[in-house]
Amino acid sequence: MKNYDLIVIGSGAGGLTATFTALGFGKSVLVIEKDRPGGECTWSGCIPSKSLINQAKAVHTARKFADIQVDGASIMANVRAVSERIYEHETPEVLQKAGADYLNGEAVFVDAHTLAVGDQRVRGKKIILATGSAPLLPPIPGLSEVAPLTNENIFQLEQLPESLLILGGGVISMELAQALNRLGVRCTVVEMLPEVLGREEPEFAALMREKLASEGVVFQLDTKATRVEKTAQGIRLHTVRGTQESTLDAEQILVALGRAPNIKGMGLDTVGIQVDKGVVVNKHLQTSLPHVYACGDVAGPYLLSHMANYQGKIAAMNAVLPLPVKRSVNYQHVTWATFTDPELARAGMTETEARAQYGDRIRVYHYDFAKLDRAQTKAGDMGRIKLITDHRARVLGAHIIAERAGDLIAEVQVLKTLGIPFSKLQGVIHPYPSYADALRQLSQQVFLDRIFQHPVVKLFRSGK
Ligand SMILES: Cc1cc2nc3c(=O)[nH]c(=O)nc-3n(C[C@H](O)[C@H](O)[C@H](O)COP(=O)(O)OP(=O)(O)OC[C@H]3O[C@@H](n4cnc5c(N)ncnc54)[C@H](O)[C@@H]3O)c2cc1C
Ligand SMILES: NC(=O)c1ccc[n+]([C@@H]2O[C@H](COP(=O)([O-])OP(=O)(O)OC[C@H]3O[C@@H](n4cnc5c(N)ncnc54)[C@H](O)[C@@H]3O)[C@@H](O)[C@H]2O)c1
């Protein structure tokens, strides 16, 4: 039986990063993958969704100037072609060329160090679980019988449906509802909470919903799905809102209700690896078996590609380096973006979270892109920034809804992570007319506020 320094189970964002990190330290690494390398990001997540979003945005823009007919089949073929292009950098051959061994199959624990892959047995001094997550399918009567769409099969569609019910008003729902609606699919979003995008600053989530609604997406908020059935035309969803029952009809239904960790059939219980919402890990990403680590969606808490990368690197270093002190994860500076149009990006806390922690000493600033020349050059370009700082202008939270918000947040993220007061940005030259200049303009506001908040200036002004 072959013995490895490290066995990585799963080759998505987390597993690939862990593999290349361990290889970089000259360790022997085996990657076990049941499907193709690349994982959700490449095949059924970030990449195909962003490709669909980009094409839908092009169609939406073109429609302002001409009568455009959408060819759903070629759009979906393009989506798949983009995934194949990304995959070229992640194939088993690429992994083997970098020095890893590769086994195709499902890994099952035989004992704490031994894994079975079909008939083969392999042994690892250390093991990393990077098996990701799958769409959560709640036990709504009739749902599994109608073979619903999920992120795992929607990008394989050859044709776009005429109409689509989307269960859940989270990130997947908002990104896909807008894109598909722009491509001519009538979308209805059913969300059980009073507002969509529950992880966002509430006023920005509302702005995003209003934007999508203005484009034609229908929202049923505060609404629970109770039953699903097949009809001659497609799908009928039974819902309840308070005490009011009703039905919604569409050609197909997409389930986007959150995720469940991929752990089934791996024998985790036989070797004593604890599982709660996901695989339970400590701050060093060790599971309840200290030589077994976990990273990415299977562990959480942030189900994001860049967080899987971040954790994958730390898990691999802790697993293979004989250092006396292990590295710890630090979630103080997490950021993410929702790639709707406009994009919605967040770094750090909401205002409510910041107030709960810092009380009324926080400062809150707002910026409207109506003041930004660049935004004015594009009709209908809406945008807002909400910035929350401590009394020394250090960023506690930032929320941007705007064109390129996912990129703009990176500048805020640098200041936040390095502890640089936001007011310092006012002295940094920015290109004109750029979207990023909005941040410089906002920093002038923060800079002036700092001056006016200074006790001496306050005293002087109160004496006037
Ligand atoms: C529609 C959609 C859009 C998204 N967009 C974004 C985005 O824009 N930005 C972002 O940051 N995140 C996005 N995400 C989230 C992102 O895709 C995930 O957080 C990320 O892919 C998780 O990486 P991972 O390595 O943990 O798992 P995965 O990428 O899921 O990889 C797990 C791998 O393990 C394999 N595997 C599972 N079980 C076994 C087993 N027993 N044996 C062997 N192999 C196994 C699987 O086949 C898979 O290849 C999106 C998700 C979805 C669904
Ligand atoms: N741009 C990005 O970074 C990006 C894009 C897509 C997905 N993702 C990741 O994928 C993960 C999964 O996305 P998701 O959209 O499936 O989950 P989500 O957690 O974002 O949203 C699920 C939504 O479904 C609602 N819901 C749950 N049960 C319901 C029910 N029975 N009836 C009606 N509504 C119900 C929830 O209230 C919630 O709003 C996210 O956590 C995110 O991290 C990230």
TrEMBL record:
Residues 4-312 form the FAD/NAD(P)-binding domain. Its EC number is 1.-.-.-. It holds the Pfam family Pyr_redox_dim. The keyword Plastid does not apply. Residues 336-441 form the Pyridine nucleotide-disulphide oxidoreductase dimerisation domain. Its cofactor is FAD. Belongs to the class-I pyridine nucleotide-disulfide oxidoreductase family. This is Dihydrolipoyl dehydrogenase family protein.
